[in-house]
Amino acid sequence: MRLLIVGTLKGQLSIATKMAVDKGAAVTNAEDIDTALRVMRAKGADLIMVDVAIDVRALVKALADEMIAVPVVACGTSNDARAAVAAIHAGAKEYIPLPPDPELIAAVLAAVANDAKQLIYRDDAMARVVQLANQVAGSDASILITGESGTGKEVLARYVHTKSNRASAPFVAVNCAAIPDNLLESELFGHEKGAFTGALARRVGKFEEANGGTLLLDEISEMDVRLQSKLLRAIQERVIDRVGGTRPVPVDIRILATSNRTLADEVRKGTFREDLLYRLNVVNLKLPPLRDRPADVLELATHFAKKYAEANGMAVRVLSADARRQLTVARWPGNVRELENTIHRAVLLSSGAEIGADAIRTPDGTRLDERRGPDAVAAQAAEVAEAITRGLVGRTVADVERDLILDTLGHTLGNRTHAANILGISIRTLRNKLNQYADEGHPITPPPQGEARYEMRYG
């Protein structure tokens, strides 16, 4: 557990520091945002605690601009309610009043340390996967974890780490699908100062952050095939090359990877390297979908009902017999993630002594038993298709093309390269279209800061 404390609120944060160390956390202090960013680039952290006297919004934005994902908790004097509200609105996940309470500090650290690490299961199908995970956890073998979206692949990866000989070292996760291709190389391997326009300081990548511990490459099938060759060398040689670097950097890590696709199919398509698949797939932990592990449904539902009742300051209530029946017959196409959201919603909607069947609903308010089976799914798909078709009638092709391009650009958060790939057009064509739309007065999603830097160097 690595904790970064930003600020010096009258020495009271030093009390929090001591409490965190007593709980086994490795603590680093930074007096301001610039120092905090240097620490994050060099060593990373699992949690940031920041004095509300610091500009929390600026810190959160600076982290986001550098694609650094880490929870931020604000700290301030107990009677400063306005600052607490402002910090939460600025992006802090929680507020801790100072002077700090030892139990509260312990609870926050425990929540971060244990977040998404619990394995809740009862079904034999899941038990077999966990048994295999326990057998291989103590080795340094690379493990490929596969399964549908929402089945708990990252949860299982964290479980393997906690059972390994590297449990006391960092666990670092990288979502390969969430980071634009032109930024992922720097995110993984780091960069040297001056490597490209805007690289004002050296930044270590996730490989170096995870040194001595475990690196999870989440949804690795989304990684560009050109970057896969550099990843293969890093795994084979246990050395990396920072972007703009002149000397290889040795690393000691264990690699875990996840995918919701069949990588053998991706190899046949030419979108995934076969030699990389062999390196990653020493052991395959295949998570069954929730519909194939029915005994887990009620076990997980009970766990989530308790979790979200406590998180929302509500009394813990049991699931009624009708609610349990609805949950067990549902197909759960979104797997554990969908079940978790459904139970969270049910906790908030319930008003009686139990969580009743009437509270088990989809996000649009439909009861689960009203939308079950392939016929209902087909009907819903037909309704959506018809609505889309109606929306196109009476519009010009140019208008539809413009909306499609701008919506796709918004979906990719302004990443031109990614948008062009999705649309099946060249980056030059996309830029010409965007220039035309800008001249016509249409708002254009700006490129990420990193992509702008990248295009200045490589475009």
TrEMBL record:
Protein name, entry field: Sigma-54-dependent Fis family transcriptional regulator
Pfam families reported in the protein's UniProt record: AAA_lid_14 (PF25601), HTH_8 (PF02954), Sigma54_activat (PF00158)
InterPro entries for this protein: AAA+_ATPase (IPR003593), AAA_lid_NorR (IPR058031), CheY-like_superfamily (IPR011006), Homeodomain-like_sf (IPR009057), HTH_Fis (IPR002197), P-loop_NTPase (IPR027417), Sig_transdc_resp-reg_receiver (IPR001789), Sigma_54_int (IPR002078)
Nucleotide-binding found in the keyword field: yes
SUPFAM superfamilies according to UniProt: CheY-like (SSF52172), Homeodomain-like (SSF46689), P-loop containing nucleoside triphosphate hydrolases (SSF52540)
GO terms of biological process kind: phosphorelay signal transduction system; regulation of DNA-templated transcription
PTM-bearing positions, type 4-aspartylphosphate: D51
Swiss-Prot/TrEMBL keywords: Activator, ATP-binding, DNA-binding, Nucleotide-binding, Phosphoprotein, Transcription, Transcription regulation, Two-component regulatory system
Organism: Phreatobacter stygius
UniProt domain Response regulatory: residue ranges: 2-113
Domain Sigma-54 factor interaction: 119-348
Origin superkingdom: Bacteria
Chain segments carrying region Disordered: 438-459
Stretches of the chain forming a coiled coil according to its record: none
